[in-house]
């Protein structure tokens, strides 16, 4: 099958969508498909990657005439399906949707973000102007939580399936299923971009409140991996609350470094309320680490309360969950053993590729 992926953001930029699309391209290529990418992200020339780039402020991945260039590309290449990847607002990607519709090609649109009330209002307005819900496209979302608001806006005219983000589960699964002997302290880990929408300062407040609810004889430390514009605010919070002795901000880690870090982790925390999926939480779950996350987020697709971790609907419930796991070693070890011994089949690449192939077939039938 000839597949053309369209995404505003792609490598060499590093982010959730960029890395996930690149991994999907690699997995589909390994499965024997002919896969190409069209993106507005600048970068070096790579075979199969078409960079539709314009000089924009702050290197924004948009192009004022992207639709024209994409239509020419699609007309020349004639892929069997155009697979478009969007965040909350992705102008270039939606130019790709429109170009594919004009070219008469099957279109699958994967939404990688949660549509909040403002985003839903924007897409309702765009539907009123352009009528995109009548374009015979097929939608997918990365989780049940992300699919609900999309279906509310698109209605019955756009089928929206849930296809999980993919993960090479075997690469994160610990080689030794037996948990190594710990040092006696509880190591809490979080991984993600330090951006305001992820509420990283609120994560620090969560850790502070949990520390206050755990007996002093229980040693705790936290490692918060990532970088971003909120780092300065986090450093100031740590200083103001005397947390620098047990909370560290080491910056961005490679995948190998994250894998090594998770081997020493006792609890993984993913507190963002509008997390559409949570690939870092999935990696922790695959590595055997109990996960604490929001019940309203996409993490709930692969974390069940008391099984793979603990979920909380409010900030206080998240605090109680972290404190409970810090105090209760038996519960931590029970969840960790379950995570190490249970396969994550629905998030493994064979299941993800099968899900997208069903969407491709449906898109072809609708055209």
UniProtKB/TrEMBL annotation:
The Glycosyltransferase subfamily 4-like N-terminal domain, residue ranges: 15-170
UniProt keyword list: Glycosyltransferase, Transferase
GO molecular function: glycosyltransferase activity
EC number annotated for this UniProt entry: 2.4.-.-
Entry superkingdom: Bacteria
Domain named Glycosyl transferase family: residues: 184-340
Gene3D superfamilies registered for this protein in UniProt: Glycogen Phosphorylase B
PANTHER family for this protein: SULFOQUINOVOSYL TRANSFERASE SQD2
Protein name, entry field: Glycosyltransferase family 4 protein
